[in-house]
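Weekend entry, working from home. Most of the wet-lab plans are on hold until the incubator is repaired, so I used the time to fold the two sequences that have been sitting in the queue since the last round of cloning. Logging both here for the record. First:
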Amino acid sequence: MTQGRSGPYDSPDYGVGTPAGDVYEWFQRGMKLLQEGSPAAAAALLERAAEAEPESRSVREALARAQFNSRQYAEAADSFRLIVDANPADDYAYFGLGLALWRTGDMEAAQEPLAIAVAMSPDQRHYVSALKSVRATLQARRDM
């Protein structure tokens, strides 16, 4: 490899397709990609980090956010569900799960995690707003 010409997947210490660096570096690069508006690229890198460190809540949350922002809603729901299962006191994970389910079109399933998020943090206006929207949609469907 020549200086300055290596890419993130060009390390002699890793196999083809494995990002260079360690899990922390993958996480940092994934977060930077997410912040720079490249959620699909972030999700790809963060998936590798989550495979290597499946118990890392910060990696899992970043992956879920990247999946959601790249419109991988079913995958984001799965990632948020893993966080909820590991830490049932995480209101943000419930909120993310509810939003991801909402985006998959499963309003019925979205309602419960959003209600839990609101119950845990009623001062979070975006939680309340999302729950109201889901409930209004469900009511409108029933009224049809």
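Second, folded right after the first finished:
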Amino acid sequence: MIKNILSFFKGFAYAFKGIVYCIRTQRNMRFHICAMGAVIFLSGFYELSRSECTLLALVFASVVSSEAVNTAVEAAVDLTSKGKRSFLAEKAKDCAAGAVLISAAFAVAAGIFLFWDREVFRSIYLFFTENPMYIIAVIIYIALSIFFIFGINNERKE
């Protein structure tokens, strides 16, 4: 029984290793994480209901998990094709990438439905004009995000 419990928790360790691998090696995963941070910050200007917050969480999970599955498909295809160009391998990778694109497109659509409100846009504008220190914070966030997305060496270790 102890062995089964340890095995159960070892599965979590493997899952976390996979998440870390995706973040370290996948530029698009890092982009999605930075975009989520920006959306979470901006959602503070809205009075979102519990169901709207739940929708945001589901959209975040959909995009990030589809990116992780895409990474897994690419790794499996690369392993089996061993550097050879194959029509089916290319299609598998394209379809997995397409799944991420669909998920991200629906996330953008959900964001537009949730956040398109001219009055809130006005209040965000007024907030930043009245609090210029937050503009500096946003610039720093953008700079750090760019470094996080593009500055990390994303070479895969075999």
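Plan for Monday: verify the second prediction. Residues 43 and 53 are 9 Å apart (CA to CA).
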